[in-house]
Amino acid sequence: MGVDSKAIASMKVLPPYLIFLGDAPDRLIAKTGAGIADWAPERCAGQLRLSAGTVDLGLPDMTIEAARAAGVKTLVVGTASPGGAMDDRWLDVFRAALEAGLDIAAGLHIRLNSLGALRALADATGCKLTDLRDPPPGLPIGSGLPRSGHRVLTVGTDCAVGKKYTALALWRALCERGVDADFCATGQTGVLISGRGFAIDSVIGDFMSGAAEVLAPAAGADHWDVIEGQGSLFHPAYAGVSLGLLHGAQPEAVVLCHQAGRDKIAFFDGYPTPALETAIARNLEAARLTSPDCYCAGVSLNTAGLDAAAAEALIAETAARLGLPVIDPVRTGGGAIADRLLQGRGEA
């Protein structure tokens, strides 16, 4: 009954990619493209921007024609605007990509395959439209039953604070230490980086915890699954997916992620971000429904807005205040928290 966890591993979005950025003004809106460029640059041939004011990911600027000549296989929509909406102006770009023989992959809430004319053109050109938010069929409800293996889940004070980057940094650090570990992607960017997983925020609510169980199933005694978190328990719109992941992931540890200086939920001015101590306590309270001994293994700070000295000082101050290892997944890597995970719960 349900879906075999191995069935989710066959992600077939062919690289190299041309990252389509539309008119995204910053990396927050272009987080899908930025994540791929940062963590899987070998998959990226270039970027396509609609205006000079569009964010620059540091990839070569390419037209559809140049991308085709360079051997690009897939146009990847690299933006993730609130609600996942699609700008109508993009359709001309999509049509040109299909006519040039490129597949298209997108993680938008509006499905590419729901657009009749685009679907017909894809059929006529033999190209593929991949909707990254479509989960596999047959997902079960959560069982809540204990399962073997080790699991760590990244959680956040808000969306887009570094949960994916932190999970990737932890996974990389564990692998560097010779640990048998997997990165479990729960969003379209992670899927495009790793080639495995699905966007859990599109799973029907009753099946979210079961989907997390499928993503990180029972494993060997020495195996670690590093599970990418989504949303935030403190987010007025997206708390539901965070709770489903906490219950289904059944993590023995969580890592709290926060962007330095962010004092309110992005795009929701009336909602402040919580104190780190409060966020740790609430996430542990929720996680312990299915993982009674869950603990916080550390804190990950996104310090991209600080200079090196200020970032180092904030990391040190936060670690001293909380009594936990604190990292920035880009500046420091995940080693300090990976070591804590391998040492076990300790006294925290």
From TrEMBL:
Residues 56-135 form the D-glutamate N-acetyltransferase-like N-terminal domain. Pfam families: DUF1611, DUF1611_N. Residues 144-337 form the D-glutamate N-acetyltransferase-like C-terminal domain. It comes from the Bacteria. This is Uncharacterized protein.
